[in-house]
Specification:
Oligomer: single chain
CATH class: Alpha Beta
Number of strands: 10
Largest sheet: 6 strands, mixed
Shape: globular
Number of domains: 1
Structural class: alpha/beta
CATH topology: Rossmann fold
CATH architecture: 3-Layer(aba) Sandwich
Strand order of the largest sheet: 6-7-8-3-9-10
Order of helices and strands: EEEHEEHEHHHHEHEHEEHH
Distance between the termini: 50 Å
CATH superfamily: P-loop containing nucleotide triphosphate hydrolases
Helix content: 25-40%
């Protein structure tokens, strides 16, 4: 579904953010992107939707190659990619409904966008999405009156109303408390499964990543140094991604998490009469 080959991003200073990244993502697959600050995670995500221009390499979604598109074709390309931002990126003075419907701007004409006139089907879809993300009845609230978790839910609904093929999620839990972080991660993963959406989730919280995401990609200094099942993320892998450190406390948490998940999967057979 998504194929990245030899992706390179370098700057005029000579600094390189990405060094020939190769990555494949199947339809409906959701992966976690982890790594230290400055590893190139956000750059990788922004190169995919060309908020950052790649220096070289190719990015293909389906059968469309996206790194050499002109402005008109790029607009259509970005319609295929939903984006959820760390800082929510809402228009504070607009209502929840208006923020969600802004996800349809790429599908409307200029004047309809200017006057924020939306099709009745889009409005109905927005109501459905607000109910699904737990914000039913809040459509007329201004964005600046919402909590962090509520803002992120608006951002999720806005991304999904695009009807994208691919979801890019940049640090969705960085500004949230632990309970809300788990709720948001569960919501994103559930929605991707329901809609058959592929997604890349850039996340710093390794424990949260390995709990909710079956495949983990580790980035270090602009290169992929690990790509495998979450169950294989151990002290050695963490050292490879983040550098040498005492990871024993974190790996104990990972082991406890996996043990708990295993216990939950055990099915007690029914006793025969």
């Amino acid at each position: 579904m998504l194929e990245i080959k030899g992706l390179l991003k370098s700057y005029a200073t000579g600094d390189k953010a990405l060094h020939g990244v190769d990555l494949n993502l199947a339809s409906g697959e959701v992966i976690g992107l982890i790594g230290p600050s400055g590893a190139g995670k956000s750059t990788l995500i922004r190169c995919i939707n060309r908020l950052v221009e790649p220096t070289s390499g190719t990015i293909t979604i389906g059968n469309q190659q996206g790194t050499a598109l002109g402005q008109r074709s790029l607009r259509l390309w970005r319609r295929r990619i939903g984006m959820i931002f760390q800082e929510f990126a809402l228009v504070e003075r607009l209502t929840v409904m208006e923020n969600v419907l802004s996800g349809r701007l790429g599908h409307t004409g200029f004047w309809a966008s200017w006057f924020r006139r939306f099709d009745s089907a889009d409005i109905a879809r927005a109501y459905d999405l607000l109910e699904r993300v737990g914000l039913s009845g809040m459509e007329n609230k201004r964005a600046d009156t919402l909590s962090g978790g509520q803002r992120q839910r608006v951002g999720i609904a806005r991304a999904l109303i695009q009807a994208p093929d691919l979801l890019l999620v940049d640090e969705p839990t960085a500004s949230l408390d632990p309970k809300t972080s788990r709720q948001i991660m569960r919501l994103i993963v559930d929605l991707c499964q329901e809609q058959g959406l592929a997604a890349i989730i850039n996340i710093h919280d390794v424990v949260l990543a390995t709990e909710f995401l079956p495949r983990i990609v580790g980035l270090k200094k602009g290169q992929i140094v690990f790509d495998g099942p979450a169950s294989q993320v151990n002290e050695s892998v963490l050292g490879m991604i983040y550098g040498q450190e005492d990871w024993s406390a974190l790996t104990r948490r990972l082991d406890q998490q996996r043990e708990h998940a295993t216990r939950e999967e055990i099915v007690v057979p029914e006793l025969s009469a």
